[in-house]
Amino acid sequence: MGIIKILPENLINQIAAGEVIERPSSVLKELVENSLDAGAEEVEVDFSKGGKEFISVKDNGSGMDSEDILLCIERHATSKISKFEDLFKINTLGFRGEALPSIASVSKTIILTSRDGKEGYKLEIEGGKVKEFEPFFHPKGTTIIVKNLFFNVPARKKFLRSDGTEKKYFFKVFNNFVLSFPNVSFKLKENGKVLLNFEKREREEERFLEVYGEDLKDYIEIKEKMERDMNFKMILIRGNIPVPPPNIKQLFLNRRAVWERLLYKYISEKYPKSSWVLFLKIPPEFVDVNIHPAKAEVKFQEPSKIISLFEVEEKSIFYLPIERPSIPSPEKNNLLVQETLQIPEEKYNFRFLSQISGTFLLFEEEKGLIILDPHAAHERILFESLMEKRKEKQYLITPLILEINLEEREEFREMEENLKEMGFEIDLAGEKMLKISSTPLLFEPAQALYFIKQILNNRKKGNMEERIISSLACRKALWFSRILREEEALKLYYDLKKCKEPNFCPHGRPTFIKFSEEKLLKLFERQTKK
Ligand code: ADP
Ligand code: MG
């Protein structure tokens, strides 16, 4: 007898769920996509424990009738395409008919829906099996509740991260919808308590500022281009602005948050170190959205055509009229200049030779040559002195207020203790604001804001305190290319030599390179002295 058998439907769904549903945020993505496809103008999301315990998405879209509510949890059941050609002109966010059966197979799902606010239904599914189906009152639209994700797939459940981390993924997905659908109102609740409320807006940039902070208003550049069937709008924030830039580089293709390699590369090269959101609209047949199960990656049929849309764009670009305040020069914080140099000449056992190409410093020491990177060296010196002074703090007469978004708020919660230890006294003031009443003595208030924002957006983990201090040292350190006076150069090397770990900057880059006399002799193929 043969050993091959057809897998039961439910197992197939659980396998498919492995591709589409990775974590609570993927459930959120699929549910909100369905709401938007159903023409919803209002979407309300509620969740608990980072979405692991409970997610609900309520909309005022088309709703489903008694037949559709039963069909929607069948595999490959969709109202969005019906023939092969449709695949090449997809105008909806969903089309594979996979999400609901996948979600329902790995959770306890409840669907409440009505097409007219009169006749409504409730369907309960547990691990893919229908438990209950009955008439039920619901206003026009649909509510889908997903409880205990992966309750029946312990192996998957194990891979979920802490509630806080899952929440960050969840917020990211939520924010993307908020940005891309300004004409839809969104409400976000956690355990029934409203966290955020986004009213309907006309323009994407209004939403952008609501999400990432009104203080960015003066720094956003809008680039737009309208062509017959292709258009784009780009919200761009260049690096080097006095307020902390948000941590976002996001492409929305036909309103879907996606990744596309060539375009990302192109934009990153054209606008390095910038934050950007690009809303690109092109005819659906120009793009293949069916190369990734969760539709997170797309492929352009003719990438060059898309890129060329941007090539000519510099001429047709229009800027928001903005006045740029001057950026505070880091040289102001130059400790070297402020301090008087009181090192007796004879203490040096090295000699300053020169500075080359306006950057590297050359010294002679023990007949060898030292090449020193002034920025890295200064960073190391500051880092060590900051580590020593880190516990001193200053109280501010007027507390500073910093606007934050949801992801930053989560990050803040995780880092609160570390920041406190450093001398920051910070409280959440409402959902989107931090109130800073004290900072480490080493900060000027404006720097403190920039710094906190930067820290909240720096995803790299590791020793938090060191990370914070090394980033502070980096900001305060001398510019890499700045001409130094002889006494500054001498003091720099002198101070570096006093450090505990003089050889590397806090990021691990070398501070200096040494060619000893012996090495030089060897390089010139001379006999080395013994
Ligand atoms: P897809 O979105 O790819 O069609 P799904 O499994 O996500 O597949 O959904 C299956 C079908 O269920 C959809 O095609 C749609 O007809 C229906 N549906 C799902 N969610 C909603 C909703 N919120 N409002 C109305 N119809 C919905
Ligand atoms: Mg869908």
Whole-number mean pLDDT: 84
Taken from the alpha-carbon principal axes, the silhouette is elongated
Biggest sheet architecture: 8 strands, mixed
Distance, first to last CA:
84 Å
Proportion of residues in β-strands: 15-25%
Radius of gyration computed on alpha carbons: 29 Å
Care to count the β-strands? 22
Helix content percent band = 25-40%
Number of H- or I-type helical stretches: 17
List bound small molecules.
Answer: adenosine-5'-diphosphate, magnesium ion
Quickly give the structural class. alpha+beta
Question: Uncertain spans, ≥5 residues at pLDDT below 50?
Answer: 315-344
Walk across the major sheet and give the strand order.
5-4-3-6-2-1-7-8
Give the SSE layout.
Elements: H1 9-20, H2 24-37, E1 42-48, E2 54-59, H3 66-71, H4 99-105, E3 108-114, E4 120-126, E5 129-135, E6 141-147, H5 154-158, H6 163-180, E7 185-190, E8 193-198, H7 204-212, E9 221-226, E10 231-237, E11 249-253, E12 256-258, H8 261-270, E13 275-281, E14 287-288, E15 299-300, H9 303-311, H10 313-316, H11 335-338, E16 350-356, E17 360-365, E18 368-372, H12 374-389, E19 393-403, H13 406-421, E20 425-428, E21 433-440, H14 445-456, H15 464-476, H16 486-498, E22 512-515, H17 517-523
Parallel strand pairs: 1-7, 11-13
Antiparallel strand pairs: 1-2, 2-6, 3-4, 3-6, 4-5, 7-8, 9-10, 10-13, 11-12, 14-15, 16-17, 17-18, 18-22, 19-21, 20-21
This protein binds adenosine-5'-diphosphate (ADP) and magnesium ion.
